């Protein structure tokens, strides 16, 4: 049996470099991926991500610009604290609107296809928030979601060092920089080659990798389990929210409404019992306070939890998309290899016909029948076959280069995906700790306040004496 004074959580490490939405704390450089510089070791796993420094980001101070006009919008103050050498100042800041975040996200996805780029909140509405897009509640929820978006980027060892993210924080001519980035992207566009010409014809949505890598199968299973857990949690807390406080004080269809109705009934009873009117009024007020506590807990704890759960789900979808793209790269290589094998077989068949050994090359019944059909059609002229072989030789050379490139691309993408999974795991663990910590803090605050309310009313109720 554990002693009363024994701390059973001594082995649990909870310290992590959190950034408050409205201020910066000093970064803890000894802990937390993305918040400290990695100590490089030649014996380290090359597939593990490496961080060059920390980037602490913040989104705050939403302001309605061009108010009272049809072009009104909300701008946010984005700021950072960093020691990354790519930044020209350790404390960059600027004001950005939602469309700027959309541009940043879209082009990071295009420029870094192997990276898990988090999604943005919906442009037009947020769940569990009433009012228009300029209401304080909506702007605060969006600010929090944008803050979380930048936090995810800041924890990524590649994205945190991108020139576009640096300009997002530092540039005083952001619109000019956006146009330049569109006109001259940092990565060269793929030239039209054989892969571009034949991929659409070869690949389709129903194709499957024939030689799947067990590592990525395990990753996909883990993603499935994680998303299933998030979906179950979201449904459960949505049900709890609906039964406890549906956010509408007028509905009276939840537990907060029941406590309010009970308070009214107790207050009415107090008017009938002249000797205990005052204690019953105190009890009625306590019920009203408890009802308000339930509603407050829903707004400050349950609703943010639901939003964070949904945000984590969309983040996981972005991770799933990277895994799917890796499979597509392997599928490109497999399909191109098969195509090369088919073209080579056709070239060998023609060579066998020219040498007078048609049907003896071991190419099968299909090749023999094709030879017979060509003979019947009069298409067995050696000169035409030689011309076909010349074209096939050129195609084989081009395909060999394409297969080599596809193989190298597939291997490189697989290695990058392994690093991405490590980064996603770090980020996921950090957010889960933050989310569950906020839930625990909210519940502790609720129960402490509830206990104080009931502790005050219990002695009042106990002093009631009723003559029988």
Topology, pairings included?
Elements: E1 55-65, E2 73-82, E3 93-97, H1 98-111, H2 136-154, H3 163-170, H4 174-183, H5 194-202, H6 214-244, H7 255-272, H8 277-354, H9 365-377, H10 382-462
Antiparallel strand pairs: 1-2, 2-3
Give a summary of the structure in a few sentences:
The protein has 468 residues and is mostly helical.
Explain what you see.
With 468 residues, the chain is mainly alpha-helical. Among the domains are: 132 residues, PX Domain (2-Layer Sandwich), CATH 3.30.1520; 194 residues, Arfaptin homology (AH) domain/BAR domain (Substrate Binding Domain Of Dnak, Chain:A, Domain 2, Up-down Bundle), CATH 1.20.1270. The chain has a three-stranded antiparallel sheet with strand order 1-2-3. Helix 7 packs antiparallel against helix 8. The longest helix has 81 residues. The N terminus is likely disordered. It comes from Hypholoma sublateritium (strain FD-334 SS-4). This is Sorting nexin-4. One of its GO terms (molecular function) is phosphatidylinositol binding.
